Recover the amino acids of this structure.
C-alpha cells in the first residue's frame, strides 16, 4: 500500500513576510504545545483562506499589509496531502 506523499510549496516572502510566517508558526506550535512541521502552519493558513468568500478573500489579499509580505526571499515548505487537496 502506497503512502500519501507530501507536497512542497515555494513561498516568495519579504523579510516582513518571513517574520510573519515564523511568528504564526510559533503561535500555532504554542497552541498545540508540540513541535510542528512548517507545513502544518501552511495548511492551517490554506484552511482559513478556503473559509473566506470570494469578495472577502479579494479584499484581504489586496490589503497593503498583505502585499508587503510578498518578496524575493524563496522558501520551500512541505505540506501534507490535505494541503494538496485544498489547492486542487
Amino acid at each position: 500500500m502506497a503512502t500519501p506523499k507530501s507536497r512542497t510549496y515555494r513561498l516568495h516572502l519579504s523579510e516582513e513576510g518571513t517574520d510573519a510566517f515564523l511568528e504564526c508558526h510559533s503561535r500555532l506550535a504554542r497552541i498545540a504545545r508540540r513541535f510542528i512541521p512548517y507545513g502544518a502552519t501552511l495548511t492551517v493558513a490554506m484552511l482559513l483562506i478556503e473559509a473566506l468568500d470570494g469578495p472577502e478573500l479579494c479584499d484581504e489579499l489586496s490589503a497593503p499589509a498583505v502585499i508587503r509580505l510578498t518578496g524575493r526571499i524563496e522558501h520551500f515548505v512541505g505540506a501534507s496531502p490535505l494541503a494538496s487537496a485544498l489547492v486542487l
Observations:
- The mean pLDDT is 88.
- Residues 19 and 38 are 13 Å apart (CA to CA).
- The first helix runs from residue 15 to 32.
- Strands lie at 7-13, 73-79.
